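User: Can you model how uridine-5'-diphosphate-glucuronic acid sits in this protein?
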Amino acid sequence: MSTSPARIAVFGAGYVGLVTGACFAELGHSVVVRDIVGARIDALRRGEVPIYEPGLDDLLARNSERLTFTLDVAEAIEGADFVYVAVGTPPTYSGDADLSAVWTVVDELPVIDRPCTVVMKSTVPVGTGLRVRHRLDERGLEHVGYVSNPEFTAEGTAVKDFMRPDRVVVGAFREEDGDGVAALHAGIDAPVVRCDVASAEMIKLAANAALMTRISFINEIANVCEATGADVVRVAEGIGLDRRIGPSFLRAGVGYGGSCFPKDSLALKQLAANSGYHFQLLNAVIEVNELQKRRVIGKLHHHLGSLRDRNVALLGLAFKPHTDDMREAPSLVLAGRLLAEGANVSAWDPVVDGIDLHGVRMAETVEDAAAGADAVVLVTEWPQLAEVDWPAVAQTMRTKIFVDGRNMLDQEMLRGAGFAVEGIGRAAAGGAA
Ligand code: UGA
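Assistant: Here's the modeled complex, given as structure tokens:
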């Protein structure tokens, strides 16, 4: 297994491609990142990072000598030992993953007459690798290797997740191609799972499905807690200490969102359906998540009755803290429902500067968003929200309802500030509403 620096072309300068490229440069490899969006490449060449991802700007700056950016396929491929595919695979109307960007990369590969390996980082349906293999063979590129090396990085912690992963998965058709990709990760201290391509593809989808299942599970437990007087935070702690269960991904809330879980759950559901299998559990996980996003509306109804002309402030819009990503964010569903009910919606987020929904007023500060509100809904657990002077905010509100959609803040403190407090899966705590 060679550990010498390699030349890596990364196709796609999105979250996954940029983090992959920057981290491989940090590991000593020489990296060319190629994208089709000129403005993005220009910005990267100027040293500007087009996405918000903690630590990424430092990493790109520190490794600038080993990193270049281009729009040109030939320039990217020139001398490349590895071609990483890190392009988007968004869902189509049918729920299947749209692989057109992946096929474009494969079809645009020039004739390569030296050893080179195509590595799939994008999340793709099981069986994609085999189809790519056939396509490469048809084009006379039998000598070009193919490896599935799925990513397990979460937005907001992607750099850390790449450099200190729980595992690296390498699925290959030929042992030596897998050896090469495993060797690229020399310097990373993690178990390497070596397997066939289909299994590597399934590991990615199954890992995300397992995490989503845990979230929908704890959200349903939360809903039963609400109906029975138990507290889901204590329940999650109590079950999470069982080593067979573990504490991660047991935070009840307003449902999962983001660019991965919703898309990957649909893709796996559709993959199963296309193979003639009805994936009952996954269907339930998806449905629970959809309902969970809407439960906040019921809580507001409970306190305020009709929401027409009520003022509601949404605190945090991104699908989770430490990212500016709004894809499938629960805040979008919440804002949409509130507007449909005739409520006036204001919103604050420290990073997201707009919401693509006509009628939502963006505020610069939490205080501004909440002034005159009938209710505030904590949607995303940004740490800044722990620093807010809540008694002062309560004084400026018309009705003092606080729905903590992430069970983030101390309910006693909020009650003390005069709020009627609702969490998720916790007994509702009254105040001066
Ligand atoms: C997720 C996975 O965690 C990564 O391992 C994976 O590589 C990535 O998808 C992907 O497929 O690319 P990400 O979507 O960035 O990463 O974010 P997570 O931290 O997993 O959070 C996803 C959603 O679940 C968020 O909306 C979050 O608020 C929610 N969540 C998470 C909960 O509601 N409760 C929890 O206990 C944990």
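A couple of observations from the model: The chain has a mean pLDDT of 95. Residues 123, 151-155, 208, 211, 215, 249-251, 253, 256-258, 260-261, 264, 319-320 surround uridine-5'-diphosphate-glucuronic acid (CB under 6 Å).
User: Helpful, thanks.
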